[in-house]
Write a structure and sequence with these properties.
Blueprint (H helix, E strand, L loop, with lengths): L21 E2 L6 E2 L9 H4 L3 H7 E2 L2 E2 L11 H4 L6 H24 L6 H21 L2 H7 L8 H4 L1 H8 L3 H8 L4 H4 L15
Helix pairs in contact: 4-5, 4-9, 5-8
Length: about 200
């Protein structure tokens, strides 16, 4: 039950209304208004207005360790779930870390928009890599594009993608998870139980 001063539930509602996904014209096919999550639309918005609301210069807004207060543009989408909000926050944090990494490693002047868009490109490629959960699949997909190069991603951006996994993303922003994640190679595998 919400109490005075709580920010949850949004708008004081005690439930979130989520519409059923519309069926497509074939069995097992469903219609959606957005592309798949790994293109980053849930982190970057689907309109310029949403993107302006989510941005703070070249970085994404993260307040007190989470995304900004209102998730209206996400909550109204069919299929929204709490894990999605957690992933949104995690990859917003990583977008900001990528901005800092690019500034440090690429010794040049960055315009705000150029840095935002380059970090977005790197972050979305990392999301795709994690989604595929197999670097060999990502490597094979690279043969279908001429754009996977340091001209588009920068050398530091390619290094970020190639040297990151879901485990490194989690540990980069939540180092306290190290005891549970330490001995495993894949963050999607069962974690080690930590006794305190």
């Amino acid at each position: 039950m919400a109490t005075e001063g709580d920010h949850w539930p949004p708008g004081g509602k005690m439930f979130i209304e989520i519409e059923r996904t519309r069926k497509g014209d074939a069995d097992g096919v469903f219609l959606g208004e957005d592309t798949h999550w790994w293109d980053g639309w849930q982190s970057y918005g689907t309109t310029s207005e949403q993107q302006k609301w989510l941005r703070d210069g070249e970085k994404l807004t993260v307040e007190s360790g989470t995304i900004p207060g209102s998730l209206d543009f996400l909550v109204k989408r069919a299929g929204f779930w709490t894990g999605w909000a957690a992933l949104h926050t995690l990859f917003a944090l990583d977008h900001n870390a990528i901005c800092e990494h690019l500034r440090k490693e690429e010794k040049r002047a960055w315009g705000e928009e150029e840095l935002f868009q380059t970090a977005r490109l790197v972050n979305v490629a990392l999301m795709a890599k994690i989604h595929l959960m197999a670097s060999r699949r990502l490597k094979s997909d690279r043969f279908f594009t001429d754009d996977y190069n340091d001209e588009h991603y920068t050398k530091a951006g390619l290094d970020w993608i190639n040297n990151s996994s879901m485990k490194t993303v989690l540990l980069r922003h939540f180092p306290e998870l190290a005891p549970a994640l330490g001995p495993i190679g894949n963050a999607f595998a069962p974690w080690v139980r930590v006794v305190r």
